[in-house]
Amino acid sequence: MKLIVGLGNIGQEYIHTYHNVGFECIDYLTSQANFEYKKKFLGEVYHQADTFYLKPHTYMNHSGESVLAMKNYYQIEEQNIMIIHDDSDIPLGEYKIHQGRGSGGHHGINSILSHISKDITRIRIGIRGEQYMGWKAKDFVLRSISSEDKNILQTVYQTVADEIKSQAII
Fold first, then answer.
1. Does 16 qualify as catalytic in the annotation?
2. Are 37 and 45 in contact (CB under 8 A)?
């Protein structure tokens, strides 16, 4: 079993904000085919074959509670868990994949790492564009994504989807 988690915050005020690119990437991935959908494990769960997609509804800072509940129920090994989230240290339009690192100050990742080991794969989607300059990260990530940036992020989501489909990740 595999678990792919997109991080974000629930609520109308957070829809289409930079901090929710994890949720948006999961939405993109699950729009590509028919998935079974349930509200379970403190979130939205999409399932197809041996892969689960999760959007935790615990708010970003408590994402680990939802991930741990699913991991334990389905006995998913840490090396089969992937987390997709925003990263203000990476330029907009780029992403990085790595495994076994710390949180880099991301509160959602802090929560997950406090509940399970570091042996997870992370896809860090860059959100730092020119419009980011002069903002504090905590203020910028809660801004609405500009239409220009939405187009750039859609390309990133497609690339991530292609890599996941090719089994190049986890």
1. no
2. yes
Tokens of 130: 């020119």
22 compared with 166, residue with greater pLDDT: 22
Q: What is the phi-psi region of residue 13: left when phi exceeds 0, alpha when psi lies from -120 to 50, beta otherwise?
A: alpha
User: Out of 16, 19, 106, 107, which one is annotated catalytic?
Assistant: 19
Residue type, 130: E
pLDDT of residue 129: 64
Residue 24 and residue 162: Cα distance in Å, rounded? Answer: 16
Tell me phi and psi for residue 116, to 5 degrees.
Answer: -135, 175
Percent of the chain with pLDDT over 70: 89
Question: Domain 2-165, what architecture?
Answer: 3-Layer(aba) Sandwich (3.40)
